[in-house]
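Q: Here's a chain of 330 amino acids. Please give me its 3D structure as C-alpha cells.
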Amino acid sequence: MKARCDVLGPVSRRGVLGVFLEFRLIPVLLWSYTAVTLGTALAHFEHGKLDWALYLTTLTIAMLVQGFETHAVNEIFDWKSGTDRMPAARLLSGGSKVLNRGLLTVRALWLVFAVSSALIWILSLYLFATRSWTLIAFVLPGYLAGIAYTMPPIRTAYRPFAGELAGGFLGVLLCALGGYYVQTLTLSPAAWIAAVGYACVCVAMLLMHHYLDVETDLAATPPKRTTIAFLGRELGQAYTVAYAVSALLAFAVLSLWSPLFLPAVPFASLALFAHARTRPADPDSVTKNELAVIQLGIATGLAASLALAPILFIIPLAAAIGYLVHLRLA
C-alpha cells in the first residue's frame, strides 16, 4: 500500500500541474478575465448595476471556454500537426507543453475538454433560465469559435487572418459585451467601443505570440499558415502594430466620453511602444516584449475597470497573484 501511494502521489501531482498549466492562466487573465470585468464595470458605471452572482458566473463560463475548452482542443491538434513538437527558441509560445513534458496525455486532454464543456453548459443554462435565453448569442458563438480554432476541418488558426478574427477578436468581443449584457440586458455604444478596443489589445498580443513559431508552423502537417507566417515577420509586425494603434485610439475616444477611461491610455501607449520596439526574429526581444504586452494589456483593461467600478478593487489583486503563480510554475 505504501509503495502504491509513493507511485500515485507524484503521478497525481504531475496531473494536477498539467491541468493547471493547460489552463494557461496568464493569457486567460489577459483575455476572458479582463474582458468580462471591463464589460461588467462599464455596465455598473452606466446603469448602477453590479450583480456579483451574474458577474462571477459569466466570468467562470468565459474562463472555462478559453482556458480549458479552447486550449485543450488547441493542444491536441497542434500536437498532432507537429508544430508543438518541434524544437524552437521560444519560451511563451508553442502551447502549454504539457504533452511535451509528459504531464498529460491526449486522452486526458479530451477529458478536460469534456468536463469543462459540461460545466460551461450547466452554468450557461443557469444564466439562460434565471436571466435571459438571449445570452446564448454570447455563449454559443464563443464556444464554437474555440473548437473551430484548431479542430479540423475549419482550423481557423491554420488560415491567415481567420484565426485572430474568427477566434481571438470574436472571443474577446463576446466576453466584454457578454459581461455588460448579462448585467443590463442591453448594449450601449460605449460598450461596443470598449469591447472592440480591448479585442484589439488581445489580438495584437496573439499576433506577437506567433513571431517565433513561423518555421515550426509552416513545417507542420497541415502547415499552420498563421497571419504572421503568411505575411512574414516584417509585414506581420506592421499588421500587429496596427491593432495596438486601434486599441489606443479606442480608449482615447472613450476617455473623451468619460475621463474614467483615462487610466487605460498610458498602458495602451506603453503596449504600443513595446510592440514597435520588438525584433520579431529575436527570441529574447520577443519574449521580453510579449511579457510586457501581456502585463500592459491586463493593466489597460483593469485600470479602466477599477476607475469605472471601484467596488471591483479585489479583481486586479487576484489577477496579479494568479499571474505570478502561473509564471513561477510554468
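Q: Can you summarize the key feature?
A: The mean pLDDT is 93.
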